[in-house]
């Protein structure tokens, strides 16, 4: 059974004031380590759009379902590869 894992994207770059493009590979690796395979993933937190897009792309094929969550939009399903 798939687990639901929530990732606060801002925690990927918590050691710096802002996300840095030069650290992108590190952010992607951290996110992949957190999610495992075949789980439902929720992305949330303050982060630049480019980082959300790259993380979402990196999790495609690894996550079963990807959701973007914000106080403004609520949950937005990015993809759902669940057979049900």
How would you describe this protein?
The protein has 84 residues and is of the alpha/beta class. The chain has one domain (1-13, 34-84). Helices cover 27% and strands 27% of the residues. A four-stranded mixed sheet has the order 1-2-3-4, covered by helices on one side. Strand 3 (65-70) and strand 4 form a beta hairpin. Helix 1 (24-35) crosses helix 2. The longest helix has 12 residues, at 24-35. The radius of gyration is 12 Å and the shape is globular. The two termini are 12 Å apart. The model has no long low-confidence stretch (mean pLDDT 94).
Strand order of the largest sheet: 1-2-3-4
**Overall morphology:** globular
Q: β content, as a range?
A: 25-35%
Identify low-pLDDT runs. none
Which structural class best describes the helix and strand composition?
alpha/beta
Number of helices: 2
* Rg of Cα set: 12 Å
Mean pLDDT rating: 94
What assembly state would you assign to the polypeptide chains in this entry? Answer: single chain
> How many beta-strand runs?
4
Order of H and E elements: EHEHEE
- Gap from first CA to last CA: 12 Å
Please give the share of residues in helix. Answer: 25-40%
């Amino acid at each position: 059974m798939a687990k639901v894992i929530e990732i606060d994207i801002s925690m990927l770059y918590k050691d710096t004031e802002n996300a840095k493009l030069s650290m992108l590979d590190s952010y992607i690796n951290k996110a992949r380590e957190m999610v495992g395979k075949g789980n439902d993933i929720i992305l949330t937190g303050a982060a630049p759009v480019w980082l959300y897009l790259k993380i979402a792309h990196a999790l495609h094929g690894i996550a079963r379902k990807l959701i973007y969550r914000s106080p403004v939009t609520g949950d937005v399903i990015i993809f759902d590869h669940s057979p049900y």
